[in-house]
Amino acid sequence: MQVYGHRGSVRPGPQNTPASVLAALAAGADGVEIDLRLRGPDLVVSHDLPEGDVPGASDVLDAGRGGRVVCEVKNRPGDPDYDAPRAGVAHALVDLLAARGGDDVVVSSFDWFSIDAVRLAGGPPTAFLTPFGMSMRAGVAYAAEHGHAELHPHWSSVTRRGVEKAHAAGLRVVTWTVTSPIAGRRLRRLGVDAVICDDPADVVAALAGVDDA
Question: Which CATH superfamily is domain 2-207 in?
Fold first, then answer.
């Protein structure tokens, strides 16, 4: 099972920065998850509406070149910058990645318009990020029907049967957001492919050399 740092790494942080990405990879994480938004014409890395000094997407992607980067497109109803179905962040990300080349990226979002836009534009693999409380069965059905490569369910909805159904449909299962090594070990026993966690160093250390079979 792979380990990805949440927002680079919430601990030690500062989250969604090149420093947090480098810290996660140095701790043995296989990759990271980061949050993307538009500020004017620029694609930036920020969980909330970008204010003050926030890093540009290219700087954070450069830091992540040592592993996989899960790029979460932030585009939810109620956000002041919500723009579905135009999916401006998704299109900007596809253009940026095409211009850069060489990034190991999967694009995730709660917003169906965004991940569909990435897939239809010929972008990198896409993942359906399921809202808290959505069953794996519903998530698998949507992701498989729309041609996405991964399902990213909340850890609390993960079951062994759900993981088996996802794998049978050709989907990788990457769970969010793990906050303890105990949860990480449980998810590994259930067969998930990767976990997104706040403290990747802690989870990597806890999983090392431990046989959960």
Answer: Phosphatidylinositol (PI) phosphodiesterase (3.20.20.190)
